[in-house]
Amino acid sequence: MLWAVFSSLLLATAISFAGSVQLGPVNFGTIHTALNKDKQSAIRFGFGGSLPELLYCGLAFASANLLGRFEGFQDTLKYLTIGILLVFGTYLIFQKSSTTSKRRFRKGNELWLGFTFGLLNPQLYPFWLFVITNLKTNNILVPNHWMVEVAFVLGTALGAFLLQYLVAEFTSRKREFIYMRLTKNYNKVLGAIVIGIALIQLLLNL
């Protein structure tokens, strides 16, 4: 039983880490926070953005047998994600890069902001629904005990947070280089990148 729990945790951590590599609202939010504030703020944002994995993976476990009913919504969910990226990119472009932006939010608000970004990610639930259904179908994940399912759910948040931690660490280390290269236009450049990726995803889904 102990090995089943541990392997379930490792499996979910690896899948979540790999799945979170795809550039999305939480990733860009962590980068933006690291550039505008500091590493600790970015880590809090990334931690908050990882927490919704617990909710959506738990819901996916509870409704894994309903995958067929949600397949028709995959395209709609992709377009919702694209819309979120476009809104976030537009916000970055029009945001002023100044020291006042650092004073606008109190320390700790990054956690709730990251949680909101993660909660509004429309692809989390169908992603875990698809993953869990396939793992069960191929007998890779056999949740014969509630502890196995709990370990898997915890692993989803752990994997996502590990990636966000690395993103915050890397961005913070390279912040001075980014500042020197982009000076006061880094928000506009980052916003343009976000919008560019959203448009690419839109074209790929047409």
What key phrases describe this protein's structure?
single chain, 206 residues, mainly alpha, 80% helix, 0% strand, globular
Quick structural overview:
With 206 residues, the protein is mainly alpha-helical. The chain is built from 12 helices and no strands.
Which range best describes the helical content: under 10%, 10-25%, 25-40%, 40-55%, 55-70% or over 70%? Answer: over 70%
Kindly estimate the percentage of residues that lie in beta strands according to DSSP: under 5%
Number of strands: 0
Alpha carbon gyration radius? 18 Å
Structural category is mainly alpha
Mean pLDDT: 79
- Contiguous low-pLDDT stretches (5 residues minimum) are 98-105
Number of domains: 1
